[in-house]
Automatic annotation (TrEMBL):
Domain of life: Eukaryota
Domain Alpha-D-phosphohexomutase alpha/beta/alpha stretches: 61-90, 111-175
CDD domains according to UniProt: PGM3
UniProt GO BP: carbohydrate metabolic process; cell wall organization; UDP-N-acetylglucosamine biosynthetic process
UniProt organism field: Schizophyllum amplum
Catalytic activity: N-acetyl-alpha-D-glucosamine 1-phosphate = N-acetyl-D-glucosamine 6-phosphate
Cofactors (names): Mg(2+)
Residue ranges occupied by any Alpha-D-phosphohexomutase C-terminal domain in the UniProt entry: 455-528
Family: Belongs to the phosphohexose mutase family.
Cofactor binding comment, as recorded: Binds 1 Mg(2+) ion per subunit.
Pathway membership, UniProt: Nucleotide-sugar biosynthesis; UDP-N-acetyl-alpha-D-glucosamine biosynthesis; N-acetyl-alpha-D-glucosamine 1-phosphate from alpha-D-glucosamine 6-phosphate (route I): step 2/2
Record protein name field: Phosphoacetylglucosamine mutase
InterPro entries associated with the record: A-D-PHexomutase_a/b/a-I, A-D-PHexomutase_a/b/a-I/II/III, A-D-PHexomutase_C, A-D-PHexomutase_C_sf, A-D-PHexomutase_CS, AMG1_II, AMG1_III, PAGM
């Protein structure tokens, strides 16, 4: 085992000094906070990525520098494991430990010992960043970290989170039976658009889809995508400004649409009634659809609507292919899924509820032959198990109709980015289903009616005082609070409310839904008030709506 080059580490960790009095935490989305305090974290994450690759015998690890849908001044970093999945949970602890260590060298020695890492192994890392202004400096700090272990590193430049995940998986599966595709952006776009073109071949031409790119990196990817799509799907790109300071995710993008349940003002005179529109988030892994109805009212088609559309379509294809006894399609949601979507899906597929966070959804989806998972906020994908992919490849259909359905299923395995939720791939998937069903947004929306709902944030002294069970649907701490929430929820028709601490922000989130809009709002604010009071908030700062 070659020793650590402690002199280099000392020198560089001096350059990338850790700020005092800040505690960093590798959470569900990696490290995420203000971009201007992350320099030391990026340097240390570079070293960690090298160690992770050595631990995995030199397989390529991904590093993505992004703060997704968060404000432009924020930034973050997360590691991607070899098949494009999230970093293994036990390593999140190492990440946090290294980021906070006063003595980096001794912390590194601990990690190396604890994880039993052989430093003489090779290490490979591929990294990318979104369009945030703090990105270049943070990438430079990351590169210094990568130098410490002489990592063989590849800069994937400015690209989307899902493309980085795709690259990681493509690099690590190159030349194997499970080869995921060419390890380049071109490979990504060709794979996806070739499958899309086959899936929509012979369908009537679609009217133009308007894409809100959140003024982020999705704009760059969408421009490229449109070239590969040619006339197979007409698209119009909006909010593509990646250079004006302050515009990223500002009053636009998937998170704005989901949290405000409104059309981004910049699209007001652009989206025609009945036209399909969609919003990406700042790193293009979330997708929200919407349209304006005949009265000009905004109608949102969120992750739940996508899950129901896609889940039932794939279920039908499996049936048409004559494979329903061999391939079980299931769906995974979180407690944030609209109750109406859960009802709709449960009548068609097995549905599981898991804790918030992509890794929980992803793992649960792996337990189905085909697992459809989407968070209500528009992050999700579909996983085909390796056995299912083999089965599709080997299956001999007995009728032309079965043959057609089989080909569609195989093309879906190529269209869908199975490494991670991918707004562009999900968007093409939605477009395929709409083309097959000959649906506009209106028909899609009419499959079921969302229960009105409201999500509220509450700032409390210590969010760790809130502990949950049953996939976060019930609070076990603070004691007694759950019973009071239920007591409130029972007063409203279709009332449901739950409370959990956020994994990405220092807040507690309150969700409520009910049959009537005003009641959903009232329930949310009453529960929020309850949380605020129970958690000992300062009465002077108790938000007015809670009263
Ligand atoms: P937290 O902050 O733990 O609620 C948020 C989203 C998650 C997930 C993560 C990662 C909601 C209510 N929560 O988590 O769904 O996307 O961010 O980005 O949307
Ligand atoms: Zn994102």
């Amino acid at each position: 085992m070659s020793p650590l080059s402690t002199d280099t580490i000392q020198a560089l960790s001096h350059v990338h000094a850790k700020p005092d009095n800040i505690r960093f935490q590798y959470g569900t989305a990696g490290f995420r906070t203000l971009g201007n305090i992350l320099d030391s974290v990026l340097f240390r994450t570079g070293i960690l990525a090298g160690l992770r690759s050595k631990k995995l015998d030199g397989q390529t690890i991904g590093v993505m520098v992004t703060a997704s849908h968060n404000p432009e001044a924020d930034n973050g970093v997360k590691l991607v494991d070899p098949y494009g999945e999230m970093l293994e949970a036990s390593w999140e602890i190492y990440a946090t430990k290294l980021a906070n260590a006063p003595d980096l060298i001794s912390a590194l020695e601990d990690v190396i010992r604890d994880a039993d890492i052989d430093l003489s192994k090779p290490s490979h890392v591929v990294y990318a960043r979104d369009t945030r202004p703090s990105g270049p400096a943070l990438v430079a700090a990351l590169e210094d970290g990568l130098k410490v272990l002489n990592v063989d590193a590849r800069d994937a430049g400015v690209t989307t989170t899902p493309i980085l995940h795709y690259l990681v998986r493509a690099i690590n599966t190159k030349g194997t039976k499970n080869s995921y595709g060419e390890d380049s952006e071109q490979g990504y776009f060709e794979k996806m658009t070739n499958a899309f073109k086959k899936l929509v071949a012979g369908r009537p031409p679609r009217d133009s889809l308007l894409i809100d790119c959140a003024n982020g990196v999705g704009a760059k990817a969408a421009v490229e995508l449109s070239e590969y799509l040619g006339d197979s799907l007409p698209i119009t790109l909006e909010n593509t400004d990646t250079t004006t300071p302050g515009v990223l995710n500002n009053m636009c993008g998937a998170d704005f649409v989901k949290t405000t349940q409104k059309l981004p003002p910049s699209l007001a005179n652009k989206l025609k009634p009945g036209q399909r529109g969609c919003s990406l988030d700042g790193d293009a892994d979330r997708l929200m659809y919407f349209y304006l109805d005949e009265r000009g009212q905004f109608r949102m088609l969120d992750g739940d609507k996508i899950a129901t559309l896609v889940g039932s379509f794939i279920g039908e294809l499996v049936k048409s292919a004559g494979l329903e006894d061999k391939i079980k399609v299931g769906s995974v949601q979180t407690a944030y899924a609209n109750g109406a979507s859960t009802k709709y899906l449960s009548e068609r597929l097995p549905v599981r509820c898991v804790s918030t966070g992509v890794k929980h959804l992803h793992h649960a989806a792996e337990n189905f032959d085909v697992g459809v998972y989407f968070e209500a906020n528009g992050h999700g994908t579909v996983l085909f198990s390796p056995a299912t992919t083999d089965r599709l490849r080997e299956y001999q259909p007995s009728t032309p109709a079965q043959q057609t359905a089989l080909e569609h299923l195989i093309n879906l395995t190529l269209l869908i980015n199975q490494a991670v939720g991918d707004a562009l791939s999900d968007m093409l998937l939605v477009e395929v289903v709409l083309a097959h069903k000959n649906y506009t947004g209106i028909e899609w929306d009419s499959l079921y009616s969302d229960l009105p709902n409201r999500l509220v944030k509450v700032v409390v002294a210590d969010r760790n005082a809130f502990q949950t069970e049953d996939a976060e649907r019930r609070l076990v701490r603070p004691e007694g609070l759950q019973a009071r929430i239920e007591e409130l929820a029972h007063r409203y028709e279709g009332g449901r409310s739950f409370v959990r601490p956020s994994g990405t922000e220092d807040v507690v989130r309150v969700y409520a839904e009910a049959v009537i809009r005003t009641q959903a709002d009232e329930l949310a604010f009453r529960v929020a008030g309850l949380v605020y009071d129970t958690a000992g908030g300062d009465p002077a700062r108790r938000p007015k709506e809670f009263l």
